[in-house]
Amino acid sequence: MAKLCQTEDLTDIQQEILSTVRQFVNSKIIPVAQELEHSDTYPQEIIDGLKELGVFGLTIPEEFGGLGESILTYALVVEEIARGWMSVSGVINTHFIVAYLLMQHGTEEQKAKYLPRMATGEVRGAFSMSEPGLGSDVSAIATKGTKLDDGSYSITGQKMWLTNGASSTLVALLTKTDEGADSVYKNMTTFLVEKEAGFGETAQGVTVPGKIDKMGYKGVETTELILEDHKIAADQILGGTPGKGFFQMMDGVEVGRVNVAARACGLAWRGFELGVAYAQQRKTFGKAIAEHQAILFRLAEMATKVEVSHSMMVRAARLKDTGKRMDVEAGMAKMVAAEYANEVVEDSFRIHGGYGYSKEYEIERLMREVKFMLIGEGTSDIQKMIIGRQLLKEYAL
Ligand SMILES: Cc1cc2nc3c(=O)[nH]c(=O)nc-3n(C[C@H](O)[C@H](O)[C@H](O)COP(=O)(O)OP(=O)(O)OC[C@H]3O[C@@H](n4cnc5c(N)ncnc54)[C@H](O)[C@@H]3O)c2cc1C
Fold first, then answer.
1. 372 lines ligand 1 (CB under 6 A)
2. DSSP state of 131
3. I need a labelling partner for 236 at 20 to 30 A (CA). Which of 85, 220, 249, 295 fits?
């Protein structure tokens, strides 16, 4: 049998990219991940290395200085990186989503202004929908963009949970605006907010207060963002027309869901690798624990879950590459990969016995990181809601 997480029908270029990234992960990420994660240190050298490899511009078209690769390539790269350290995949994820939003929905001026500098990693993206009072329920957004007499806007409100909130310099930010539409979803607008990297007042009326202290997903910062009468020109509206923000962001979230599925696959893959290695080294009752059938069966179930997740993630990425809406497929892939990753990592933890509880072992970190897969880009409950509603449409009597 082949090893896990193999993908059929990749081009030579895709295989070359994945092999380069895998070498980078094995030599530059895995050896330092434990130490950087435990000390909550930003992985600057790793990020510089990824910039050199061109990863920040992976999906950006060649005319804008990127590699012009597909969402599938991006998802497989994310899987490889998350296998090394999930936090690093978080550094690039919101960047990818913002680049995707610009490519799909930006005006020609916006593409020309940002994409070349995003391809090099000079401009770094963050994606902001959540607020202190909402995550799943985007319709409840309270941050408001008010149109001023001169045609520009003033934004006031509080945003929550911005991955890369401090290191980013361009935030795709969803607000309410008054378009006079009959639906709350048509009264939302995405603004492209420019700011400096760092904490404190990073642009006029834009403050990044500090890092949120998290149980895992360390190294990469997650922040709040406070906007107080932030003045912004109308040409910073994504696509130039207000009222389209919700639909643009949902398109971006589909890419985000493929991304979280890929991250979960990477975590599960690593969890399996650690478990299968430990099970052959540790002896109890005169033999390696892998020879006890309970452990062997556990390994078999873990590997099967890794393969199921990988296949569904690859299918979702390929579908997104066709340009079709695929909220059900993205939701299914995200839900299955997240739930299975949680189970696989826990099984690996159990295989490690007491040592799994020691901070010296990688599985301890994975146990904390994998919990985020159950929440990011929509909880499993929300995925079920999306899948279920669509099923009732497809199978309506
Ligand atoms: C580390 C981290 C990084 C993040 N990064 C970002 C980011 O970069 N940008 C961003 O915009 N957001 C980000 N988020 C926010 C994330 O997307 C939300 O936390 C997530 O969508 C869940 O929203 P919530 O926390 O408000 O939970 P809630 O929406 O309050 O949900 C609470 C519980 O209720 C359940 N629930 C809610 N509604 C329903 C329903 N209709 N039916 C059944 N169950 C329901 C949920 O499943 C959950 O179990 C991040 C979050 C974390 C923890």
1. yes
2. B
3. 220
Shared-domain flag, residues 260 and 171: no
What is the reported pTM? 0.97
Domain count of the fold of the chain: 3
Residues 253 and 365 in one domain: yes
Q: Whose CA is nearest to atom 31 of ligand 1?
A: 136
pLDDT in tens, 16-50: 999 999 999 999 999 999 999 999 999 999 999 99
Instruction: Check if 135 has its Cβ closer than 6 Å to any atom of ligand 1.
Output: yes
Q: Of 248, 240, 137, give the one whose Cα is nearest residue 188.
A: 248
Residues 267 and 369 both lie in one domain = yes
Final residue of a structural domain among 180, 209, 243: 243
pLDDT confidence band for 2 (50 / 70 / 90):
confident
Using alpha carbons, select from 71, 114, 88 the residue that is nearest to residue 167.
Answer: 88
* Distance, CA of 183 to CA of 196 (rounded, Å): 34
| Cβ density class 95-134: b for 16+ within 10 Å, e for less | bbbbbbbbbebbeeebbebbbbbbbebebbbbbbbbbeee
129 lines ligand 1 (CB under 6 A): yes
Residue 180 shares a structural domain with residue 236 = yes
**172 in Cβ contact with 101 (< 8 Å):** yes
377 an active-site residue?
yes
Q: Is 379 buried (19+), middle (13-18) or exposed (0-12) by CB count in 10 A?
A: middle
